[in-house]
Design goal:
- The protein is an alpha+beta fold.
- The chain has one domain: Peroxisomal Thiolase, Chain A, domain 1, CATH 3.40.47.10.
- It has ten helices and eight strands.
- The protein has an eight-stranded mixed sheet.
- A hairpin with a 2-residue loop joins strand 7 and strand 8.
- Helix 1 packs across helix 10, helix 3 crosses helix 6 and helix 4 packs across helix 5.
- It is globular.
- It starts with a strand and ends in a 9-residue tail after the last strand.
């Protein structure tokens, strides 16, 4: 496979004990203690009140991290092409839909139905940011982050336009959790551009590989990496937090991974700015 490259200009992150990219970068770099706690999903204030009341966990999560990454890059969120990557939809909404269909009264709320669609977060992003830019939505089970990263870098390489990757997964309630044990929400967003700018954090070059996926030295973060499909991004995110030029291998397909070479930019300022 031909190597594809892009520059990372902005990062957004939200997860258990990780409130945003600036705080998470300090924790992942070992400069602050990690204090695990349930992910706190912010109110999507950018949405009009009617839409805001209808949002589910995946929408709140994706809007929060996408907006953080876009603002960090200094680019207009409405102008960014987007790639949304998630292994599944909102688990709690799916649970209610299944309960309704299994009951005597099968009348399903229109709000429940449209929130069950895999591209619902992309639609809410368009409303919140006033965006009419191109948007792709994909899933690849536990390899969804790698699939989204590969798609985003490919778009940047071909179109030479900045692209925002938003990768996220929320928890599932019982009994779905018994077969899909995702315990909490996690999401990461990256703004990728074709050329280096003063805001560029790192250059990333990706290619397909057969090597095993990179694991994390921290037992807590390795457990998080394995618990949530979007958290398969953590080896890459940890390298950015530590400002370390390195190569990491990310989970993708059963017999194929995605290798990412990360080169920190000389012009980069403090991490998380």
């Amino acid at each position: 496979m031909k190597r594809l490259s892009a520059f990372i200009e902005g990062v957004g992150l939200l997860g258990p004990g990780l409130a945003n990219w600036e705080q998470a970068a300090q924790v992942l770099a070992g400069k602050a203690a990690y204090q695990p706690q349930r992910t706190v999903l912010p109110v999507p204030s950018a949405l009009p009140p009617p839409e805001r009341r209808r949002t589910v966990a995946t929408v709140k999560l994706s809007l929060a991290i996408g907006r953080e990454a876009a603002l960090a890059s200094g680019r207009d969120p409405a102008a960014l092409s987007t790639v949304f990557a998630s292994s599944g939809g909102d688990g709690h909404n799916c649970h209610v839909v299944c309960e309704t269909l299994a009951g005597d009264d099968r009348e399903l709320s229109p709000t429940r139905f449209h929130n069950s669609v895999h591209n619902a977060p992309a639609g809410y992003w368009g409303i919140a940011m006033g965006s009419m830019a191109p948007s792709n939505v994909l899933c690849a089970y536990d390899g969804s982050f790698a699939a989204g990263l590969l798609e985003s870098v490919t778009q940047v390489a071909i179109d030479a336009k900045p692209t925002l990757l938003i990768a996220f997964d929320a928890d599932y309630p019982a009994p779905i959790r018994d077969v899909r044990p995702v315990d909490d929400s996690f999401g990461v967003a990256l703004v990728l551009a074709a050329q280096a700018s003063e805001r560029a954090l790192a250059r990333i070059e990706v290619r397909l590989a057969d090597a095993p996926a990179t694991t994390l030295a921290s037992p807590e973060f390795e457990a998080l990496r394995l618990d949530n499909p979007a958290a398969r991004a953590l080896p890459l995110i940890e390298a950015l937090a530590m400002r370390r030029s390195t190569s990491v291998v990310l989970d993708y397909l059963d017999d194929l991974r995605l290798e990412a070479d990360i080169t920190m930019c000389d012009a980069c300022g403090d991490i998380g700015r």
